[in-house]
Design brief:
Blueprint lengths: L1 H15 L19 H17 L2 H11 L3 H12 L9 E2 L4 E2 L4 E2 L15 H22 L5 H14 L19 H13 L5
Helix pairs in contact: 2-4, 2-7, 3-4, 3-5, 4-7, 5-6, 6-7
Length: about 200
């Protein structure tokens, strides 16, 4: 009995340590522009095996950066279907690298210095891009709740922080006009299926 209680406490502590920038479950995302949350859920569920193959990497980066693993994995699902959509590690016509699609030309990151499907790639993209976006959005929109700042940072992952102007228009100009709403819907599905 003691072991079960201890495991539950450790799991709770890990989940709580990933909420520095908000809780994805407090959002009400619209999902994909075409098909809504149902479409987002369908896509991420088909990516689950690929995402689970690197769950230890998502969890490690979530712990280091205090961001829910479900959000990180949902980004990977949107960017590359968890790696399934890549050709030899490349996506976006050869302009982006890895599960989280490091922009080779514009990101300023040493994208190809790490394996496309490595924990190092995931950590580089979470720490250097997503976390930096969160801090910028916090400065730009200090009155937004943490969850809105997190979703704004996810939108910025697609089209840059300067384009995140209003909460109502957070996805205006993102790929498909639905980027962050789709990612957050996928993250909620993952959260409900064992990812925190």
């Amino acid at each position: 009995m003691f072991v079960i209680v201890l495991c539950a406490l450790v799991a709770y502590a890990n989940a709580a340590n990933r909420l520095c920038y908000g809780d994805v479950m407090k959002l009400t995302p619209h999902g994909k522009a075409s098909g809504g949350v149902t479409a987002s859920n369908s896509i991420v569920s088909s990516d689950l095996a690929a995402l689970n193959a690197h769950k230890n990497c998502y969890d490690a980066s979530a712990d280091r950066n205090c961001i829910q693993a479900s959000v990180i994995a949902a980004l990977a699902s949107r960017e590359s279907n968890g790696g399934k959509a890549l050709q030899n590690g490349y996506g976006d016509g050869g302009k982006a690298w890895g599960i989280l699609q490091c922009d080779i030309v514009h990101s300023g990151q040493p994208c190809t210095s790490v394996a496309w499907n490595s924990c190092e790639h995931i950590e580089m993209m979470v720490h250097n891009i997503l976390l930096a976006n969160i801090h910028t959005i916090q400065r730009m929109h200090p009155t937004w709740p943490p969850e809105h700042q997190l979703q704004g940072a996810v939108a910025a992952y697609n089209f840059g922080t300067r384009n995140v102007q209003t909460w109502a228009g957070v996805d205006v100009g993102t790929t498909g006009g639905d980027y962050s709403n789709d990612v957050m819907a996928r993250a909620q599905w993952l959260h409900n299926h064992g990812w925190n």
